[in-house]
Write a structure and sequence with these properties.
With 470 residues, the chain is an all-alpha fold. It has one domain: Amino acid/polyamine transporter I (Up-down Bundle). The chain contains 18 helices and 2 strands. A two-stranded antiparallel ribbon has the order 1-2. The longest helix has 35 residues. It is globular and about 65 Å long.
């Protein structure tokens, strides 16, 4: 029984802190960097509606399952899955779910810190006036100079990894809890200030309409080219992208949520906390869209600019708008904070495993994980310059792209699928009933139906699509 166990890593001081920490895990580059640009690529409001449905039908049920497993096991994801498999009379092979999550998180951390390093660099460049009066050509050159320099990328990658490791090494109360207690409120305040700036200086009406007016004919179309004369083709890709992003933005399948669940107080409501986390995570993504799209439209730029929307398109707007230097700096600080809160949670499962199973002290375990992720991250750094040529690619992908594909498109959805299958089929129903403590039987039955059928089918579709089956 979970109420007979106490995590050796410590406990969150309250449900509120747990919720803030998990929001910090979920809110990251995916919300502020990726969500706006994929929304721009896949039709705006209609894509948002599909994304919200995916959060409700896949994200929330799987997050509830992952948190309840963590609280039940009170250990690292690897130890938790092995322990619960034994208790439920299931195959010990279920512990591979924990291993997969830890490895996936480790891979993600090794390239996540490189992208976060870009944001760090842009904080100082923007504050120093490097974006003032910037044109499309000079913005692209500025970004190219950054990614083309192994020395610059190594410096920022190292600084960000150091920031992450220092927090994780201090433990649950002194490190994780203190960090998120500061980072998350500041992040929300800065995001609201950015939305206010977009209202005053941007084309807010057009940005709002783009984000919330749904043209469902666009859900099954992928359009490229200028907004006035787009070239569109029929495809189900936007639906699959929405489903995949809903899964990944909540940090599911990488062990982070399960690790944080191990520190949840016994009396905390998993259901209420999960809904709060999902709503907050979605709100951050939507607020990011409201902060970005009005500025993009007011500057006559394309919302479908792709991954370069934040680092090449948006700087043009900031560089040519009133107060752009100050607000641009704030925006990139916001991006760094979001990445920092997520990277802390990504590192936690591997550190917890070393403490659980190898009897390491927390600080050395954190520094080892950080050092190994930093070393593996060097391949990501070089992928943008020295190792960018075809002779260094594997299966047509750079090392950065390969790690991103393996972790995000293969290991995470597979881990989430196996979590749903273990809770729905590998464990007894009463385990979930005890941990969730849902007072209304019909609500539990609805969740049980979703976790056994709806979520696994949805995740399987994402997984099979990502590996090219269809």
């Amino acid at each position: 029984m979970s109420n007979q166990r106490v995590s050796m890593h410590g406990m969150w001081s309250s449900r509120t802190v747990f919720v803030m920490a998990t929001i910090g895990s979920a809110v990251g580059l995916g919300n502020i960097w990726k969500f706006p640009y994929i929304t721009g690529q896949y039709g705006g409001g209609a894509f948002v509606v599909v994304y919200l449905l995916c959060i409700a039908l896949i994200g929330i049920p799987i997050m509830m399952a992952e948190i309840l497993l963590g609280r039940r096991g009170r250990a690292s994801p690897i130890s938790t899955m092995g322990r619960l498999a034994r208790e439920e009379g299931s195959s010990p092979a279920w512990s591979l779910v924990g291993y997969s999550g830890v490895v996936a998180g480790f891979l993600i951390l090794s390239f996540y810190s490189v992208i976060a390093g870009w944001a760090l660099a842009y904080v100082f460049q923007t504050a120093g006036g490097a974006l003032n009066g910037v044109t499309g050509e000079s913005a692209a050159r500025l970004f190219g100079d950054l990614t083309g320099s192994p020395v610059q990328l190594m410096i920022w990658h190292s600084v960000f990894m150091l920031m992450t490791t220092m927090v994780v090494a201090r433990g649950v109360r002194q490190g994780l809890e203190r960090a998120v207690s500061v980072l998350m409120p500041v992040l929300f305040v800065m995001l609201l200030v950015m939305v206010g700036y977009a209202v005053v200086e941007g084309d807010f009406a057009r940005g709002f309409a783009f984000l919330f007016e749904a043209d469902f004919s666009r859900v099954f179309q992928l359009c490229t080219g200028p907004a006035a004369t787009p070239e569109c083709r029929f495809t189900g890709e936007p639906v699959l992208v929405a489903m995949g992003h809903a899964f990944f933005t909540l940090s599911l399948g990488m062990g982070a949520i399960m690790a944080y669940g191990a520190y949840v107080p016994e009396h905390a409501s998993i259901t209420g906390a999960t809904i709060t986390i999902a709503v907050a995570d979605t709100a951050v993504a939507l607020l990011a869209g409201l902060a970005i799209f009005p500025i993009v439209f007011a500057s006559g730029l394309e919302p479908a600019a792709g991954p370069g929307l934040i680092f090449q398109t948006l700087p043009i707007a900031f560089g040519n708008m009133p107060g752009g230097q100050w607000f641009g700096t704030m925006f990139f600080v916001l991006l760094v904070f979001a990445a920092w809160s997520s990277s802390i949670s990504i590192a936690e499962p591997a550190v917890a495993w070393l403490v659980d199973t190898r009897n390491w002290r927390r600080a050395p375990a954190a520094w080892l994980v950080g050092a190994l992720a930093w070393l593996l991250g060097i391949a990501s750094v070089l992928s943008f310059n020295i190792w960018s040529g075809e002779e260094y690619q594997v299966f047509g992908k750079t090392f950065f792209e390969l790690k991103d594909f393996l972790a995000s498109n293969v290991m995470l959805p597979l881990g989430g699928l196996l979590i749903a299958l273990f809770v729905g089929y590998g464990a007894a129903r009463h385990m979930a009933l005890e941990e969730l403590a849902i007072s209304r039987q019909r609500l539990f039955d609805a969740w049980w139906l979703v976790i056994r059928y709806v979520s696994p089918i949805g995740i399987a579709i994402v997984f099979l699509n990502s590996v090219g089956v269809f």
